[in-house]
Specification:
The complex is a heterodimer. Chain A is an alpha/beta fold. Chain A is built from nine helices and ten strands. In chain A, helix 6 packs across helix 7. The radius of gyration of chain A is 18 Å and the shape is globular. In chain B, helix 1 packs across helix 20 and helix 20 runs antiparallel to helix 22. The chains are: A alpha/beta, B mainly alpha. At the A-B interface, helix 4 and helix 5 of A face helix 1, helix 19 and helix 23 of B.
Chain lengths: 267, 495
């Protein structure tokens, strides 16, 4: 996973670090009074009760909260996967609720990448086919998508396993393929829902390395919902959500994080 | 950093969709097999019935063709020996095509000119409608309407302006079941029959008189020989004579055919007579190891299959000093086959009488049965596809996250259903054909295999395939609609 590989993958869409810092950071995701209520039979569940937040380009955001706090719901809203019952979500000043289904598909395909806790691989496709699927939806030619897919797999260190099916791969490998898939169309936003949740420590570290490099060198905005302290250590801002509302927003340097480790780690 | 400019997501090409769909089927092969079998069974049922219908039609056509010659010969024998009735004349003339030689014959026999013949032909077409009407009418109603008049006698009875006609007009209004087709045409027919100058009644009599004269002439020429004897020479001099007398529709082709048939019948009769002689029967009885009284003519014919049997019969006939000119072993075997075929054809033509109506030669009841079974099959497919969709919620949601359009998801499932329909339909069609044609071959034997309807079967096969695909695809529309409408997160939430 050298710098060369990273460069070769992102040829044509380069954003250097200098450019990033010289450009004024603007809001890439803004939510205004986001509310979501689920109706299950007669019971109404208020998942979100008015969330206001702004996320800037190139940030590494961590969203934390106890289960049932609406963290996942907020996450989905931000990623364009779900629509709020009231309030608005602006992705780069474009109101997601105003988009048609076709435009939403475009958004999900090109501009936002998703990484899930349960990998969500398509079982009957090989690793390469999984990675090139978003490219196929984006209209990239099969040859070019194959080339790019292979370099992406090399980026995550799975070049030799391109023909394996998800069932033949371990959790860590699947998650790495998921990252490669998420980066397939070089999105500007990456949404990670507990990416290291199902992984062991070493693999988790590798994943974090990749994510950090993507964030620092490529300026990809990464939004994570996580409990992993190592990931919290990497991020720029932390958002706590409780009971459907933002409880607290803090920058990294305002909080103290102790990353635990085991002496005698053999892996 | 580039701004996010939101555009429309392009549609995925059909190839790629197809690829992805194919992958999916390979992966879920077992469950797909079950769905395919469901389709196969329903299509097999439909194909089986179709094949029955096709076979019956084919057999009917083939046997009609085979018997046609025999029937034609018999018809001519009647024509040349007994007077023609007005009803028969009108019916035959009404069924002619524009180039039928019968038209010329009628013209000659009746001494008419071209215009009169054309008019008469048109009249026959109109009159036959009413002849058929009165023929099919319930006897009770007919008695009420026209007393005991029959055929053209009805036309004569209902002369326009007569008492009988007035009574008829009154009576027919009261009988609901007897609706006269096209009242004005009927009036025209009656007028032409009775009141024209010359009336068509008179013209008919003229024509029939001509035919009767012809028959007399034939009798004179054949000098007392029975008509079927003379007809053996129908392809030669006798045929010429018939034509000269005025039966111009007895063309040389007809003559050849009639001659052949007449000869076959003559020879068959000779052998039948031979078999009834006690000497011959005794010998046959010895050969087949039965009592002479048990030797029936039809059984002997059925067993005359090899030239050995024929030679034996020939020998027996010679020993009885019977005239065996023209009878060789080959001839006897040929006659035996001819006789057997007539029996089978007769049976076949009879058995297929009810083949007609409905779809491609099926009955209405059968068509309904098939439609119902196909509907049940469609429901089954729908159910299977819904189960498939439910199990693949997560996968569908993931695809949507990756940018799949709703239309793509729908196309994916409909294509999968369609492919299952295609393969299942093909299997079902093959099985149905085998079963259907197998049964038909068993009941109809050589008559069927001789006239195997390849083209009709091919059409039926493609029809079944198309039905299979369309049925499966339609059955898959609802489940795929459900799948396509899924919001990605809802799906993931459920899991």
């Amino acid at each position: 996973m050298s710098n060369d590989t990273l460069n070769s993958v992102f040829q044509g869409n380069e954003v250097s670090k200098n450019e990033n810092s010289s450009e004024k950071q603007r809001v890439i995701i803004r939510t205004v009074n986001l509310q979501k209520t689920y109706q299950m039979g007669e019971v109404q569940t208020h998942a979100l009760r008015g969330v206001n937040c702004e996320i800037y380009t190139g940030e590494f955001i961590a969203i934390m909260g106890p289960s049932g706090s609406g963290k996942s719901t907020f996450f989905n809203m931000v990623g364009g996967l779900d629509s709020p019952t009231s309030g608005r979500v602006f992705i780069d000043e474009v109101d997601v609720a105003q988009l048609t289904a076709v435009e939403l598909a475009f958004l999900r395909c090109r501009k936002i990448g998703y990484i899930f806790q349960q990998f969500n691989m398509i079982q009957y496709m090989t690793a390469l086919e999984n990675v090139t699927a978003p490219m196929a939806f984006a209209g990239v030619s099969p040859d070019e998508s194959r080339v790019r897919g292979m370099s992406l797999l090399e980026l995550v260190g799975l070049k030799d396993r391109w023909f394996h099916r998800p069932i033949e791969m371990s959790g860590g490998q699947q998650q790495r393929v998921a990252i490669a898939r998420a980066m397939a169309n070089l999105p500007t936003i990456l949404l990670c829902d507990e990416p290291t949740g199902n992984l062991d420590l070493k693999t988790g570290r590798e994943i974090l390395d990749i994510l950090q490099r993507l964030n620092k060198e490529r300026g990809v905005t990464i939004i994570c919902a996580t409990h992993d302290t190592r990931m919290l250590d990497l991020c720029d801002r932390l958002i706590w959500i409780r009971d459907g509302q933002v409880e607290r927003v803090a920058r990294r340097d305002e909080v103290t994080i102790e990353v635990a480790s085991i002496n005698n780690e053999t892996f | 950093m580039k701004t996010i400019d939101v555009k429309d997501q392009p549609k995925l090409s059909l190839n790629r969709t197809f690829e992805i769909c194919l992958n999916g089927i390979k992966y879920r092969f077992f469950r797909s097999t079950v769905t395919m079998l469901v389709i196969a069974v329903a299509i097999a049922f439909m194909m089986n019935t179709l094949c029955e219908g096709i076979s019956k039609k084919a057999v009917q056509t083939a046997s009609r063709e085979a018997i046609r010659q025999q029937l034609a010969a018999t018809r001519w024998m009647n024509r040349l020996s007994s007077p023609i009735t007005p009803e028969n004349l009108l019916m035959e003339l009404a069924n002619t095509k524009d180039d039928d030689p019968l038209i010329g014959e009628v013209q000659t026999m009746g001494g008419l000119d071209k215009q009169q013949t054309d008019n008469y032909r048109q009249f026959s077409k109109d009159a036959v409608i009413y002849l058929n009407f009165f023929d099919d009418l319930n006897y009770g109603y007919r008695r009420v309407l026209v007393s005991d008049a029959n055929g053209v006698g009805i036309f004569t009875r209902l002369t326009p302006g007569s008492e009988n006609k007035k009574r008829f007009d009154d009576k027919i209004k009261t009988i609901k079941a007897a609706r006269l087709p096209q009242d004005e045409l009927f009036e025209s027919v009656l007028k032409r029959w009775n009141l024209d100058q010359p009336s068509y009644n008179e013209i008919t009599e003229q024509i029939i008189a001509g035919y009767n004269r012809g028959i007399e002439n034939i009798e004179k020429t054949s000098q007392g020989k029975p008509i079927d004897e003379s007809l053996s020479d129908a392809s030669g001099a006798f045929g010429e004579t018939i034509r000269k007398i005025g039966f111009t529709s007895f063309t040389p082709d007809v003559g050849n055919m009639v001659a052949e048939q007449a000869l076959k019948q003559k020879d068959t009769r000779r052998i039948d007579e031979a078999m009834s002689l006690s000497g011959v029967r005794q010998k046959i009885a010895v050969r087949v190891n039965k009592q002479p009284g048990e030797v029936k003519t039809s059984n002997v014919w059925n067993s005359l299959r090899s030239s050995g049997d024929a030679a034996f019969l020939l020998n027996a006939m010679k020993l009885e000093n019977l005239d065996v000119t023209g009878l060789s072993t080959e001839r006897i075997v040929e006659l035996a086959k001819y006789r057997r075929d007539i029996e089978i054809n007769g049976k076949a033509a009879q058995a297929c009488v009810d083949a007609g109506g409905g779809l491609m030669g099926l009955g209405i009841r059968m068509t309904w049965l098939i439609i119902v079974s196909l509907l049940v099959c469609a429901v089954g497919i729908s159910n299977a596809m819904l189960m498939s969709v439910t199990e693949r919620f997560r996968e569908i949601a993931t695809l949507k996250c990756l940018g799949a359009l709703d239309g793509f998801i729908m196309a994916l499932f409909v294509m999968e259903a369609g492919m299952l329909g295609l393969i299942g339909g093909a299997i079902g069609a093959v099985i149905g054909s085998i079963i259907g044609f197998g049964r038909m071959a068993v009941s109809f034997g050589t008559v069927f295999t001789g006239a195997f309807p390849w083209l009709a079967w091919g059409e039926g096969f493609f029809f079944s395939l198309i039905v299979g695909i369309i049925l499966a695809a339609l059955a898959g529309v609802y489940p795929s609609y459900i799948a396509a409408r899924l919001a990605p997160m809802e799906a993931m939430r459920i899991e």
